[in-house]
Design goal:
Number of helices: 15
Helix content: 40-55%
Shape: elongated
Largest sheet: 5 strands, antiparallel
Number of strands: 12
Strand content: 5-15%
Length: 439
């Protein structure tokens, strides 16, 4: 009979432990969705999640009480017979009594930990929302029965938290890291594709990426001279990669006149007319803006010019530094690539950021953004990344070397060896990244 009582108390302890872990591991958004679908027990489970102190106090009262009862019942039921057996083996009463008590305590503790704590908690962790829904009504009923004592414990806990200046509401605040972890779990379970996870992660990083990290740098911008005629501009375009919009400048990019659409040049009947007469105003953005700022700006421009048949303010933007000099161009396509990652190369020229070779090394483009570098090379961070001293792989190389390199120069950082493979004038064009082994 005593054994059955201990087994029963252990099972009750298992219910408390299982409910504690199930509620702790439950995702509030998931329970909220189930509650909106009128799934039984979901709203009661939400009550436990939203009032953790009261719930945990109930659980603690139950587990502590059961532990005391288990000890009392076990000691009374088994210590006497076990002590007699030990004395029969030749032990003196002075040794047999404490040894019998110790063996009973160890045995009951082991049984309780395995079947009353570890196994049920693991089960609660495996099926959190389901078990939370099933056990919530029972836990709420027990909380009502023990309300006076639970309120005393909950009030004491809240008072101590206030003394420690800890925000009790902070546990319910979901961060972008929480979303990313949930998405990673979803990828592992096959609920979403890895590419979808990457897109969402890139969206969260948009506000951390300056325009300079994904713009087309000044040296690579294809622009048209404002003094050219339509015919001359079209002839020059045929020699270059095709774009839907072009920057128009006078002599150099230090004197930007505006932008012009390729369709405007093609459809214009007067082939000898200067293109300066056909341009539209250019949009200028400071280099301190982030990708999220760019998205907002493009949306505003689109709304302001929604009744205009064709305009360039939302199609092409000049990125300028603090001195007003144009540092590069950024387009909605660049923003899309920042979100989706490197776009699949098509028939026109597209930057190949990274190509992995058979030996595991990577041939990287010097214009590769920092986020892409960390993704391809599985790096958590880069040296002094928060300082904003560089935005591309080429900038990282210059930062690490402290000088303008030539082909063949290399630098090692974080178990990676970066070697300059090709220079385009004074710009680092291609870099070979090879692992040097673990330190």
């Amino acid at each position: 009979m005593d054994i059955l009582l201990i087994v029963f108390l252990t099972l009750v302890n298992a219910v408390f432990a299982m409910s504690e872990m199930a509620v702790a591991a439950s995702r509030r958004n998931r329970l909220l969705s189930l509650a909106e679908d009128q799934v039984p027990g979901a709203r009661k489970a939400l009550e436990l999640v939203d009032k953790p102190t009261e719930f945990l106090s109930t659980v603690q009262v139950g587990i502590t009480s059961i532990g005391l009862l288990n000890g009392i019942v076990g000691e009374a039921a088994f210590s006497g017979p076990l002590m007699a057996d030990l004395q029969a083996l030749g032990l003196s009463p002075a040794w047999a009594s404490p040894l019998a008590t110790a063996l009973v305590v160890v045995g009951i503790t082991f049984f309780t930990i395995i079947f009353g704590e570890l196994v049920p908690k693991r089960i609660g962790q495996m099926f959190p929302e389901t078990l939370a829904r099933w056990l919530a009504p029972l836990m709420l009923s027990l909380a009502w029965l023990t309300k006076p004592f639970v309120r005393l414990l909950a009030g004491s806990t809240a008072w101590i938290l206030r003394l420690l200046r800890l925000d009790n509401a902070a546990v319910h605040r979901m961060t972008s890291q929480d979303v990313s972890v949930s998405l990673t779990e979803a990828v592992g379970h096959g609920a979403i594709e890895a590419e979808e996870h990457q897109v969402v992660s890139n969206v969260f990083r948009l506000d951390d990426r300056p325009l300079t990290s994904f713009m087309t740098p000044r040296a690579d911008v294809v622009w048209l001279d404002g003094q050219s005629t339509v015919e001359q501009a079209l002839a020059e375009i045929r020699e270059q990669p095709l774009h839907s919009w072009y920057l128009v400048a006078k002599g150099s990019m230090d004197h930007v006149l505006g932008v012009i659409a390729l369709s405007t040049l093609i459809q214009h009947p007067q082939r000898h007319e200067p293109i300066a007469d056909l341009i539209e105003p250019a949009l200028y953005l400071p280099e301190t803006l982030t990708g999220l700022d760019l998205l907002t700006k493009l949306k505003v421009e689109a709304e302001q010019h929604q009744n205009v048949k064709r305009h360039g303010l939302g199609r092409l933007a000049c990125v300028v530094d603090e001195y007003g000099e144009v540092q590069g161009l950024v387009t909605p396509g660049d923003l899309l690539e920042a979100i989706t990652g490197e776009l699949t190369p098509s028939s026109h020229d597209t930057i190949h950021w990274a190509t992995q070779r058979e030996d595991g090394s990577w041939l990287l483009d010097g214009l590769m953004p920092l986020q892409e570098i960390k993704l391809r090379l599985a790096l958590d961070d880069l040296p002094d990344e928060e300082g904003g001293h560089y935005n591309t792989l080429a900038g990282l190389m210059l930062y690490l070397m402290g000088r303008l390199p030539t082909e063949g120069h290399s630098v090692t950082w974080a178990n990676w060896r970066f070697e300059v493979m090709d220079m385009d004038g004074r710009r680092i064009d291609k870099v070979l990244a090879s692992q040097t082994g673990l330190s």
